[in-house]
Protein 1
Amino acid sequence: MILHRCVIVSILCKFRLHLKGFVIMCSAIKPSIQSICFSHAVFLSLQDCTFFTRKEILRLHGRYHELAPHLVPMDYTNEPDCKIPLALIVNMPELKENPFRNRIVESFSEDGMGNLSFNEFVDMFSVLSEMAPRELKAIYAFKIYDFNVDNYLCKEDLEKTLNKLTKEELTPEEVELVCEKTIEEADLDGDHKLSFADFENMISRAPDFLSTFHIRI
Amino acid sequence: GKKPASDDDDDDEDDEEEDEAPRGRRGANRKKLAKKRGGNDDEDESEDEPPKRKRGGAANKKKGGKAQDSDEEDSDVGKGKKGKKGGGKKGKKEEEEEETKGKKGDGKGKGKGKGKDDDKDKKKKKKKGDSSSDSNSNSSEEEESMSEGEMARLMEEVEEKKKLIANIRNKPWRMQRRLKLLKEAQEFVDKFEGALGKGKGRKWYAYKVMMTKVLMGLPYGSIPRKTVPRAEQDTAQDYSVLMDFNVSLASNLRPPAQTLPQACCTQPQGEHPLRGYCKYSVLFYGYYNDQRTVGVLKFRLPLSYLMVGIGTFGYSLMLVIRTMAKNADVGGGDGEDSDFTFAWKMFTSWDYLIGNAETADNKYASITTSFKESIVDEQENQKDENIHLRRFLRVLANFLITCSLGGSGYLIYFVVKRSQEFATRDDLSWYEKNEMEIVMSLLGLVCPPLFETIAELEDYHPRIALKWQLGRIFALFLGNLYTFLFALFDEVNTKLEEEQSIKNASIWAMKEYYANYSRLMNDSEATPPPMDPADVIRGPCWETAVGIEFVKLTVSDIQVSYLTILIGDFARAVIVRFLNYCWCWDLEAGFPSYGEFDISGNVLGLVFNQGMIWMGAFYAPGLVGINVLRLLSSMYYQCWAVMATNVPHERVFKASKSNNFYMGLLLLVLFLSLLPVVYTIMTLPPSFDCGPFSGKDKMFDIIMETIDLDLPAFMGTLFSYAANPGLIIPAVLLMVLAIYYLNSVSEAYQNSNMELKKKMKMARDEEKNRRNNADTTNQVMKDLEDLLPNRSLIPPAPPEPEKPPEQEPKPKPTKTKPGTAGKGVNLQKDVALASSNPNARGPVSRPPGPRGPGPGPGAGPGRGRGRGPPPR
């Protein structure tokens, strides 16, 4: 019953997105998941720690289970310790087309390799949800664009970002120029790489950041 | 000496440490006592109490909080002595310590007056340390019995925890840590809330109150328009306005079945256009009657009709303004156009919502184009070109566009006039009946592409060109709408005359009837004439007529937009797709291609549509419902069309950064649609026999009536005073002055903003020079570090090599504009200026973010930077 409703809701949500294709819509209608057991406490704490409602958490668990039915047990009452590898998560329709999909998953995994437990999985979509505040999103965006995980966006990171964004269609000179300009614009302290303070200062004024850094599930 | 504290401070601190030591030892044994004293110190702090003592108390309290000692502070050289001597327990986070220490110094500097605040701060800090340290079990607190101060402190702590629980989802922590902390906090709250006797509190259940049905009494007084007149009953067979287009005009002027008042023959019934049942439905103004109160609850229908009509405008106005203000706030969109072009493009241009391969490909393409564009913009200096030709072309383009605007206006006027002519005739073809709507829709269809073609002449930057284009289309729509309105008002005036004659005639007939009645029956008692409501002759009810025009306009608008999509996009896409197999050139890449989805045009259409609804809703309340249906259906329909047949715009340019461009248009439309409605409410007399205001001279008389009849008498006098021009004019004057004042204030703010920006830039340049690269004590940085994967596996990062302090920024690459060379020179000058006056740049040397308390004026920007990496 719940699942049924979930599917309807998700279809409606997806219809609302003009940019989302029907491919996703079809994939949202998957064979049913009978019953997912959670203890009440888990629900409450998850609700407190994320921006999701009970229903959405259930739906998320459905999706999580779907990714690796053999790995993830249905019964979550005693919080089993299981993780789904990056390769499986990245294939979710929500992430499949994202040029930064690997980085997204890696930044949310505790081991940095992209293996996500359910909690981290929920965390990921909570941060990317509509309700998350700008500051929180900024922090995770910074982490996502920080390819070499040194807490600074250096030129190397920017080049990678740019090449992913444009599918490497810019010439090296153009890439160089764009990265130079980006650093020049956003770097407040003159160390030729962007620290989080620089990044936040820049992103907090970006008009599109909230609307683009956002995944609906 | 890590923090730049004055000698004075150091001395004080030493004293404090000395003092702290014995107290601390004592406190170790009799913690409770010390704590109590600490709490009391907080409560009854007096002026002459030495600050040390207070501080000692605070430190002791701290001990209580941090039950578990750790060796960490030993590594901290500056604190080691203090930590060992006092035996005080330090928080795990060094940062907290630092801040607390800083606080102490601060507090001393500021004097005793601030002491209390300081203390509170400290408490908070401590608690934060509490809540964010992982292994903190509050064992020490559990054993204690409660004293007054203890209670207060605990309460505060509980509050703190509660706040943490509420905000934990906003913290950038790992989920595992979050869950753990949450659990701890919840346990803490549960335990101590019970102890404090607060309990869970009674829960109040909200009951849903069912609205009692308002029984609509039978219409009394004027006959509502719900009843279809007998004369129209057999011809009014269609069910919606939509069908109106196909109604054959076979109206034989039947005399009413009961020709009681002879006067009715004088009624110019032939002028009535046939509108079908819809005309008498809830869709239109005429449906409602002027019954003052309805049902047991005395629902005041006419009053609420007026209030809803005006309230809608007020609410929309408020909403639009609020949204605009919010957008302006968020966007901060003043002159920062070129500040972050590339950075924003780099970090916010990918839309994470994209989940479709084709869309993603398009997005990649459009991002690439936009980057290339900005690169070209960047490289391109102002070209020399023939400015005279450019000017001539622009003037020409504007001339052409003005011509076409005027032409379209005239065309509409002409058509409306003609339709009034047609209204008197019976033998109309389908085209002639719907000429006006068709012409208006066609104009809306043809003109925008025409404008776009003409705009090619002007050769503006795409963003400016888009603004012009939108402005022109807007002018076209608005001009058309207003021409249509003026023509409509002409019609309304003729209707009013006609109505006057009908009114006179029926009054005369009634008098006649009553005269006959009383003469025949010899009875002065007035009985209403035995007549079916459907047979009564009625006036034209101009309000309904206006409503009908708006509904027709909306419906035809729907039809046109749907047909456009079906033919212009879908058919084209099908042809391009399938004829491509057998065609001489590439249809997909070549000439016809697929239709582009024009975002700005669609938004403008929505804005315009909204304006029409605002205007028409007073006369046709059902229009709102129609529009909701239309918007819903068109959302899905257009969604399908976009997915199936359209390609994204080749160059997507937003008309404005802060979305306020469209909101501004919406506001303008709202204002312009407000005008005619308010005009009619204020000046035109309502129809005498239809609508909620029938029988009144003016629509707003209903308010007067309510004041007179329903409110106590003094309210009436109050309102009459309030409506006095002598009061209103000063009020308006005051408001104007207030606007003036606020305006100048905002200007002043803007100036100071600019000043601050300048200062920030200066500080930034200066910082570039004396940058040493140690990490900051920023909380956020800590969190970020915390989020690094597998901290335990990675060896502790070696301290970053310090950069030479006077490192100049690298020479700019050759591709930058020549102007930057001058900037470099400037920069050095700025630095020289800046460093000569350290006080001025102190406050702006760091963003006012979460970096902890600002240093005193003498502290300077170096504080907190020279320290080594946090021990991890």
Protein 2
Amino acid sequence: MEQNNNSSKSINDMLPPELITQILLRLSVKHLGRVKSVSKFWNNLISNPNFAKSHFELSLAPTHRCIFIPEVTIDHRSIDLDALSHATYADAAAATITKISPSPAAADNDSDPDYDDHIVLGSCRGFIALYQYPHFFVIWNPLTGSHRIISCHHIAKISDMATNCYYSFGGELLFGFGYDATRDDYLVVLAWKDEKKNQEGHFDFFSLRSNSWSSFKEDVIIPDQLKRRKKWAHSMFFNGAIHWLNHDGDYDAIATILVFDTSKRKGFLEIAVPEQVGRYYPCHLTVLGGCLALYYDKDDDDYDKSVIWVMKEYNVQSSWTSYEIPSSYFEPVCLSEDGDFIGFDESPGMSKYNVRGELLMRFDRSCN
Amino acid sequence: MTQLDRLSVYHWLNAWCIKPVGGALVRQEPEYILLALMGSPLKKIMLCSSEKEIFSVEEQVMVQHSVIINNMIEDGSYNHEESKIPLDCVDSKTLKKVIDYCTHHTHHHNDNQEDLEAWDAQFLNVDSNGLYDLLMAANYLEIRNLLDLIYGTIKNMIKGKKIDEIRRIFNIKDHGFTPEEEEQNRKEYPHFY
């Protein structure tokens, strides 16, 4: 590229803002963070709220990543799922895992290492929601490092539980994090029953746009099963709605998936889950290949086995398809481009199995 | 006509000393003459640059690449006998480049990927001003593949470069930050600079 700097003007003088915006929209989030400091003008373009929305929707620089936060250390890892799904050799696959800065909730080094300081509650469009003791939620963008702290100390329930018995937290509270496309807003939703006031139901939400808490106006019926759940259930944002796996772990229990549409906000839908799933606990909800999926460790035989159920068509019962992986505690993370399951196993490492449960590849996840 | 090897026919005609006709301001492709002789003229359209220079180009070529020109021809606002399409925001130098790009990609669309990419790289070997002019022309004419090519090239000029380098490449002499802001940025992210 020849440069004729004496007579060339700056790109900001030569091109109209719309075209400069188009250039910036094609950069990945990683590059945008750096490029914001090139010029004030570029900074303003990128900071424009519509930019973030267009960038996400354009997906010209998509980054599908999986963040995992190992329990014992504060070393967070990020896995590039797009690269991982294409990796054909163990070395290439291991190279997709990189270190990232820890979440802001984990930053406090004074805390008791036994406390799970940063409980991951859910994720949505690249943001991760975490709980921070005693009464805060943190919305964190792991790629840029920026975060927002939301206080919920006015919700007596949470302060109560935080001071009393930390670990019984999860049972009576439903937490969710999602996005409302019609209002271009992110929501943190909280549902609980106040046993001091005759099991009075509460369903509040925090809007990131308005930076405030409100209650849902409709009389939203909070599902009964809420009472019996044992721990924080991951909320998962998918298909324009927040999903939770409602499963209390009793033998012969029926598990269901609760769905709350963040745009319509009309109440909870229930998606039934195959009967066989009910017996297994814990069971996890995830998304694989653009479909809802469940997985659990099948521990009733002598053999190590994990089972994955994929709902190939959303909310169509007959489309639940099961797969068996000959490894205990296999946690699928994504599908490869050939439809194989890639996930964490016990080794510690990651492995790839095809749909018939045959092991195709294994690699270390303790990265670069 | 696409069946025949134009180049070999041209050489044949050349051997018979039939030279293409050219006026002072009107450029005509040699093929036009030989096709006229063959009895089936290729439809041409006239594009007029901001400097009032007229370029004659195969309709097929422009219609395949530019959404704007395609729409004009389809909705009948372009009359082949008389009209020329005025492109007041594209100068002659840029318009010629754009026509080169579209013509090459139409005639060579069957080439292998590597050859096309090499040609594209050579095509974009211009100075920054030329690149910006091409971008604006491609944007105005809505030529999708040329736009993607240019955006891709600019993206590569940015990726992996330090901020000082990026400012040099895009000739951003005044970054617009206050001295305090700039100092703060450099302190917080020294590895970016």
